[in-house]
Amino acid sequence: MLRARARQGATTRLRPRTVVLAALVLLAVAVFGVVSGAGELGWQRVLGEIVAQLTGGTSPLSEREAAIVWELRAPRVVLAALVGAALAGAGAAFQGVFRNPLADPYLLGAAAGAGMAATVVLVFAPAVTGWLVGPLPLAAFAGALGGVGLSWVLGRSAGGSGTASLLLAGVAVTAFLTAIQTFVQQLNTDTIKQVYTWTLGGLNVSGWDDVGVALPYIVLAAIVLCACGRLLDVLALGDAEAASLGIRPGRVRLLLLAAASLATAAAVAVSGLIGFVGIVVPHIVRLLAGASYRVIVPLSLLGGATFLIAADYVARTVLPGELPLGVVTAFAGAPFFAIVLRTSRGRLT
């Protein structure tokens, strides 16, 4: 029995070599994303520019070419890593809270709230400039948090903080906010293309300012989610078991949902709506590394960053014109989702 418990404990610990391996894969994909692109700069020359910046040597690139690397490619890769980590970490948290491996970061109205707020900005304030942070990401951020907040208030008023009432509240809030978005959009049909482009997601206008907008919120949320990995494992046993161990399930659930929603809102604010990252990545981590959320959450953060950098590279290079990033993640995620759904029959709660 003691040996069995020891083996079980070993599977719930995050091994340093696993983290190092995942970080090295992320670093390799990030470097590849910076040195490769549609521009004919040559990966050897771009790699020489990176080495020159690190060592103080002479760069093989011209000033204009170096600007392409550091002002276009590098911030885009960093932003893709942040958004991917946020969506995958939030997905892992939602799956733990709702005890369902197919739960999504947009489950409680975050996507609908962000979409509605972004549509309002595109229709009524499309030319607003001079703000420290653009009105569109601010509106999307506030809308995502507002949608989750409405779902939480409605779920509590319907009979507590249980997962069933929260899910039903999220469905109702999503339908209501989507109706508002459609109504506002019809007030100015000239903005339909802009709204459509935003809802498909993308990083084609990203820069270091966008990184600065998302970074503090995603880092804060990631720290909270990683620190709550053990609590997610306890919640998986059920509320009664968690309460017997001295944990208040309602408060823990609120903290986790707040952190996951904050990460989702920050990601949506700078990238639009990008689907399937929060479902696919945590599930792959669960298959490869075990079912403990002390392992799933941090590896989902690293895996989500790697996945979205790779997906963004495909989006900007596979065709002469850039594909929406949400289309690429849907091509990868939808078949995977269907396979998971089929193999999980009878085991979903």
TrEMBL record:
<keyword id="KW-0813">Transport</keyword>
<dbReference type="GO" id="GO:0005886">
    <property type="term" value="C:plasma membrane"/>
</dbReference>
<dbReference type="InterPro" id="IPR000522">
    <property type="entry name" value="ABC_transptr_permease_BtuC"/>
</dbReference>
<comment type="similarity">
    <text>Belongs to the binding-protein-dependent transport system permease family. FecCD subfamily.</text>
</comment>
<keyword id="KW-0812">Transmembrane</keyword>
<dbReference type="Pfam" id="PF01032">
    <property type="entry name" value="FecCD"/>
</dbReference>
<dbReference type="InterPro" id="IPR037294">
    <property type="entry name" value="ABC_BtuC-like"/>
</dbReference>
<keyword id="KW-0472">Membrane</keyword>
<protein>
    <submittedName>
        <fullName>ABC transporter permease</fullName>
    </submittedName>
</protein>
<keyword id="KW-1003">Cell membrane</keyword>
<dbReference type="GO" id="GO:0022857">
    <property type="term" value="F:transmembrane transporter activity"/>
</dbReference>
<dbReference type="GO" id="GO:0033214">
    <property type="term" value="P:siderophore-iron import into cell"/>
</dbReference>
<keyword id="KW-1133">Transmembrane helix</keyword>
